[in-house]
Specification:
This protein is of the alpha+beta class and 402 residues long. 66% of the residues lie in helices and 8% in strands. It has two domains: 3-197, de novo design (two linked rop proteins), CATH 1.20.1440.130; 215-399, 3-Layer(aba) Sandwich (Glutaredoxin), CATH 3.40.30. The protein has 15 helices and seven strands. The strands form two sheets. A five-stranded mixed beta sheet has the order 3-5-4-6-7, with helices on both faces. It has a two-stranded antiparallel ribbon with strand order 1-2. The longest helix is centred in the middle third of the chain and has 47 residues, at 153-199.
């Protein structure tokens, strides 16, 4: 096999990685039926959803906020395409650079895979395919160097890698930043495009019809914290995890709904922490029990009539990339004038533990598989972050029946 064919194969593998990373980014933003369909076809739709909804699916970057890990993969594969194309067009050694960065990418992929197994308790099949692609690019780069370069691999890397990076630093940087920026732009743009589709009356009416056909379930709202008018006829119930990025987005959407439909809607907040430390339905147990800690602290803040400000403070921390811990809980308590000793005593008491256990039992009865899971007037919506325009139209539809 000649050099060109090798490079074409590297380019094909890299483009495949670009496509999958893009679909995973759209899945993170809740706008990729293709990614969901592929996961379903591979028999791991639930696993993909768990990974997507986990706190490990994104990195918080100031200004950019939460950036899905998939977009960093998109940048890497764009970098790989760029280096393979440069290798075809120029008589320079870009492949050793690609080999080195592919090795780094594979190490990161191994870490992500271990996080999926040990912390999330699920492996996204599409993510796993990207790991295979990264490894394949590494192997192809190695074979290319061994076959077409005369220097031993170690000498080639020592002599060429630093020289190539020094000479092409700004080119490499431009390719990487360009790929990353294109990924963000494409994901953000596409995440708004489906809104137009979802906003069409036909699609919204189809979703409303599906909602109307959904079975009525019984949800216990005794002593459950809520926002809105107590007498509001439209009742929304949200099961969530305070470390879940999608739950945080859903909280913003529901806040907007409460403001827009004052007196018509009320929202009840229930817990479904994705952590085996307090949720017997989840296999993984995080070392810090962060989700359990946040849920119990919010419930105990409710006992001091501070639930809503505490709830919003927890999600503000989530949005800032702060993982809930005793220090962050203490800081919120101090800011809100909550008695920390009382809160801590409540959190370790059997009453709250039993209350959360009942919520988990209810989640099992309602067949909750991921967060957020939302119910309106005792009927379930599709799991995940609700589409704002559909939600508004559904509330308007329900208000006409009052």
């Amino acid at each position: 096999m000649n050099k060109s064919k090798f490079l074409y194969i590297i380019i094909i593998f890299s483009i495949a990685g670009l496509v999958l990373s893009y679909l995973l980014a759209l899945e993170y933003y809740g706008n990729s039926d293709v990614a969901s369909s592929l996961c379903s076809a591979l028999g791991s739709e639930d696993s993909c959803t768990k990974v997507k909804d986990s706190p490990y699916s994104a990195i918080h970057i100031p200004i950019l906020e939460n950036v899905p890990i998939a977009l960093f993969g998109f940048a890497f594969y764009g970098f790989a395409v760029g280096l393979a194309v440069l290798s075809k067009q120029q008589d320079e050694f870009h492949i050793p650079t690609l080999f080195a960065f592919s090795g780094i990418a594979l190490i990161i992929d191994i870490v992500l895979f271990l996080i999926s197994i040990l912390l999330i308790g699920a492996v996204c099949s599409l993510c796993f395919i990207t790991y295979i692609l990264s490894g394949s690019i590494l192997v192809l780069s190695y074979i290319y160097m061994k076959k077409f370069f005369t220097n031993p691999i170690l000498n080639l890397l020592k002599e060429n890698l630093i020289k190539s990076i020094n000479k092409n630093f700004f080119t490499y940087l431009l390719i990487t930043i360009g790929s990353f920026a294109c990924g963000i732009w494409a994901a953000k743009t596409s995440s708004s495009k489906p809104t137009k589709i979802a906003s069409s009356q036909d699609v919204i009416q189809a979703k409303i019809s599906a909602y109307e056909k959904a079975p009525v379930v019984n949800i216990d709202l005794t002593n459950v914290p809520f926002a809105g008018d107590e007498k509001a006829p439209i009742v929304i119930v949200k099961f969530a995890d305070f470390n879940c990025g999608h739950c945080m987005h859903a909280s913003h959407i529901l806040d907007a709904v409460l403001a827009e439909f004052t007196g018509l809607v009320k929202v009840y907040y229930k817990n479904f922490p994705l952590d085996g430390n307090c949720n017997r339905l989840v296999q993984r147990k995080t070392p810090d029990a962060s989700s359990c800690l946040a849920a119990s602290s919010a419930l105990c803040a409710h006992k001091q009539n501070k639930f809503l400000p505490f709830y919003h403070a927890l999600y503000r921390d989530n949005e800032m990339g702060i993982r809930h811990n005793p220090s962050s809980i203490a800081k919120i308590s101090q800011d809100l004038g909550i008695s920390l000793p009382t809160l801590q005593a409540c959190m370790s008491g059997s009453e709250i533990l039993n209350y959360m256990a009942k919520e988990i039992d209810e989640g099992e009865r309602l067949n909750i598989q991921s967060t957020p899971s939302i119910f309106i007037n005792n009927k379930p919506l599709e799991p995940g972050t609700p589409e704002p325009n559909f939600l508004r139209e559904l509330i308007k539809h329900l208000s006409k029946k009052i």
